[in-house]
Design brief:
mainly alpha; single chain
Length: 151
């Protein structure tokens, strides 16, 4: 037995898919503080590496405590948290960001072993914050674009 679908039913199904994609695209629209909070997590993780162990641990704890705030906000506002490592157009960007952050951490460790000034470590942490914040904005644009075009 063949299930034939009418043109009207097909159109309704396609319209439903488009509406769902539009809702998914809206998930990528975050307020500026949300991007900045992600940047702060990255900045703390990168910046802390340049300092003594007690400061490293404090930065790591604060950064890790901020992650549930981000997840909770996303779930409350959008009903879902979208993982940065999801399949799709954002994944290559996420891995590139990860490589940059690991690179900054490696530079921090190298400089720490050579006795670099705290101001240098702080500047690299601020760079991590700025890169993380900008990356969050770019990631959300990539995600919205992907959802809007129906990839």
């Amino acid at each position: 037995m063949t299930d034939n679908i009418s043109p009207a039913e097909a159109r309704a199904a396609l319209d439903s898919i488009e509406a769902t994609r539009a809702q998914m695209a809206a998930l990528g629209q975050c307020p500026p503080w949300r991007h900045a909070l992600f940047g702060a997590v990255m900045g703390l993780l990168v910046g802390g590496v340049g300092f003594e162990i007690t400061i490293q641990m404090a930065c790591t704890v604060v950064a890790l405590c901020a992650i549930p705030i981000i997840v909770s906000y996303d779930r409350k506002r959008y009903g879902v948290f979208i993982n940065g490592y999801r399949r799709g157009a954002t994944r290559p960007f996420t891995f590139a960001l990860l490589a940059v952050m690991i690179g900054l951490m490696a530079v921090q460790m190298w400089l720490r072993e050579r006795g670099a000034a705290d101001s240098v470590h702080l500047a690299i942490g601020i760079a991590g914050f700025l890169i993380g914040t900008g990356a969050s904005v770019i990631w959300s644009r990539i995600f919205r674009s992907e959802m809007e075009r129906g990839a």
